[in-house]
Amino acid sequence: MTTTGLCHEALLYDSDTAYCDAVLPFLRDGLADGDALVAAVPGDNMALLRDALGADAADVTFIDRDEWYRRPAVTIAGWREQLAHAQARGHGRARIVGEVAFGHADRHVAWTRYESVVNALFADAPAWIICPYDLRTLPGQVVADAHRTHPVIRDPHRRDSSRYRPPAALLPELPEPLPPVPGAPLADLPLHDVTELGAVRRTVRAIASGWPDDPLDDLLLVTTEIAVNGLRHGSGDRRLRLWRTADTVICEVSDDGPGPRDPLVGYGPPPDGSPGGRGLWLVRQLCDAMAISTTTGTRVRISVTAP
């Protein structure tokens, strides 16, 4: 069966029984319909599903959610690949169980924004996604936000969410906090034109002294990209600042402009043929955290941590 359009639901569960009562019929019905089946879930829930499905578990692509939900933009790119693979195998629709790893409290907003962004980026995708929320472990605010990021709620009864907010309305109300910085910057450089980027990269290398090649290359690339983005799209006084903790470098590019109009900027690749938009998308793929503040001018701040 070929379908179009996303169905995005939050499953609020408080026991293993409630979890299986919702997820197992969802997967079994998908198997009967010929849908592609993907489950990015924690290990204990993966074991529950495998045991209950028996031989049918072989038809489900299981993914360790702790590896899958590390960076929102990377996860979004991963879902795009999963959907493309499903279509290439002849499936008309994909059923996905995506149990987000919200992680430390300072990442909750980032992943709540991700849940909202999914509604826009995959609006036309032939996909039915159930996002389980474990009421035994998740903070109340994360659960409350599930009502705002999912058009449909199951608790266990399935219904439209009366508190749902479309991404264009919710994302500006839910700005991602800037990565914290440890006091005064180690470097504060004015940005006037691209001829200064060589000096920027030398400064970054010096501050990240001792880092392995791979994270250093990522850091140099993302700092260059946000500097170029500030030069190209910013206005007024443009500056680049750098901080370092034991294993993390934080970079901020600021200007006096209003910032990007599109709240989805950087979450997905630009449309084919688009002359811009790839820089911030690349940055979101490579950095550990990225936030844009437009409270006073525009500040784009990223952090990269060396393993």
Automatic annotation (TrEMBL):
InterPro entries: Anti-sigma-factor_SerPK, HATPase_C_sf, HATPase_dom, MEDS_domain, RsbA-like_anti_sig. This is Anti-sigma regulatory factor (Ser/Thr protein kinase). It comes from Catenuloplanes indicus. Residues 152-163 have a biased composition (Basic and acidic residues). Keywords: Kinase, Serine/threonine-protein kinase, Transferase. Pfam families: HATPase_c_2, MEDS. Residues 152-177, 254-273 are annotated as: Disordered. It comes from the Bacteria. NCBIfam families: RsbA_anti_sig. The keyword Transferase applies. GO terms for molecular function: protein serine/threonine kinase activity. Residues 8-151 form the MEDS domain. Residues 194-303 form the Histidine kinase/HSP90-like ATPase domain.
